[in-house]
Amino acid sequence: MSCKPSMETPEIYLRELQLSDVDSWYSYLSVPEVVEHTSWNLRSKQDLVSEAKLYNLEDPESQIRFAIIYKSSGDLIGTIGFHSVCEASRSAEIAYDVHPEFWGRGIATQACHLVVEWGFKYRKFTRIQACILPSNIASEIVLQKCGFVPEGIRSSFR
Hints:
The chain has one domain (12-145): Gcn5-related N-acetyltransferase (GNAT) (Aminopeptidase, 3-Layer(aba) Sandwich), CATH 3.40.630. Helices cover 28% and strands 22% of the residues. It is built from five helices and five strands. The chain has helices at 22-29, 32-35, 45-52, 107-121, 137-145, and strands at residues 12-16, 64-70, 75-86, 91-98, 127-129. A hairpin with a 4-residue loop joins strand 3 (75-86) and strand 4 (91-98).
């Protein structure tokens, strides 16, 4: 189940995330504003190395992550993929991050459209969901543009 060549737009393409991407990935994930409205809790670059080793497109239950590559430079400008993959229910949860220099350019929306289509077509998911913090308005807009519909607010009990 490899990343298909059609996973591109005029500006970006998606490819499998590689360990060699960790330096670029960590450089922008270490910016407080990037992770402020997310569940990332990185202590070091090694946390991302460990995370990247978990991704495996061939294992049906594995987390999946793609590198978002900016075509004009060839640079990694974000990542997108699925965690909480459940083969039995054919469902997954989408997650993404984008370098702040590329915020507001529609990159996350383009990547979201691509990976959702890939998830339904190649992984045969019947449900793709997203969980966002209420403060993450930008992500809410991306998901709305990609056809996601709010279902409610998850609460946790202590």
